[in-house]
Amino acid sequence: MSEFKARVLSVNVGVVGEPIFDEKSTLIAIVDEGGGEFLELTQSSDSASGSLRFDSVEWPAVREAIDQMFANISEHESFSKR
What we know:
This protein is α+β, with helices and mostly antiparallel strands. It has one helix at residues 59-80; strands spanning 10-13, 26-32, 37-44, 49-54. It has one domain. Helix content is 27%, strand content 30%. It has a 4-stranded antiparallel sheet with strand order 1-2-3-4, with no helix packed on it.
């Protein structure tokens, strides 16, 4: 007899109190099109919809670059307020 187990494949991150289709809402999903699993991040607005896809090998470098860019923004904002 086969064993079954539930698996969460997506999560929605959004503003508290806003609907899941809000333009600030991001859907993070595990996707597999036959070549292995990867993450897909999707946001939609009235004018456009877009997705980004990352596999587990590339995500650490992408995350590090994003963290560096946010640090750059913070540094610039702190400097410009002087």
